[in-house]
Amino acid sequence: MSILSETLIAKRRRLIGELVKGKKIAAQLQTLLHKPLKNNGSVSAEDLAVKILRSFTETLSVLSSNETSQIYGVDGDGGDTGASACSEESEKKPARVKDRRGCYKRGRTSDSRKKVSPTMEDGYAWRKYGQKNILNSEYPRCYYRCTHKYEGCKATKQVQRIKEDPNLYQTTYFDHHTCTDAMRAPQIIVDSDPVESLNLLSFESKIPWNQDHTSRSMIKISSSAKEEPKHDTQSDMSDLKSSLEDSNLWQEIVPMEQKSSVDAPVWDPKTRS
DNA sequence: TTCATTTGACCGTG
DNA sequence: CACGGTCAAATGAA
Length: 273
Known about the structure:
single chain, alpha+beta, five-stranded antiparallel beta sheet, DNA-binding
């Protein structure tokens, strides 16, 4: 027990160290991007990018080597997923409202992962199904589920703008995508969504995020990525992969069974009922 | 016409 | 009863 917590503490230290390092290098890269002419060759943007990637890669490898939920401090007491589908027909209520008693449960007991990002874009196609004003929160919370819910993908997420910094969004992911890459750009699959970590490379100050970046526009981006598989992400990923292969980190990050799942979409694109 | 978003109602939990 | 998560009709966009 104590040994376990010690290793956890060590891992946490290592993670924090890596993240701090990555943040510093990212800041350097940011200034470099702002004044590219001043790049007299001391440090190239590419070098910095590689360093950042390495730092985040290291972080991911630590995360994927053990329970991420513990490190994130997220609940994960097992049990089944929050909402469950309505069972069947029931006509005990007025036409407008069907009887939804027992249709869903609360309490998200499945694994959840939190992420703070300047963008809601994460490479997946999401469909908004609700929005609520939350007590003591200035901004509403938006509820999304995977577009391919009807193919069996149970992934959902909640997005909420952060009160202290409205440019940032806190996204909480529930469940995992089972629709994999059939409808989105290919990517590495790690325990927690790897694309999220790559999104960290999109610098907030470079992107004109203003308050008009609503969920709507972000979702549009998601679905367009689905419809025409542009492979920006893919080329990014292959760059990343090739740079990582040099350092043998790639093998560490991608567990065996997940590597094989990349080219084996599990969802079946059938017509939904 | 199809598909996504909006929005108010419904429902379970604490 | 309040709150938060979900549903589904209405509405809008392509």
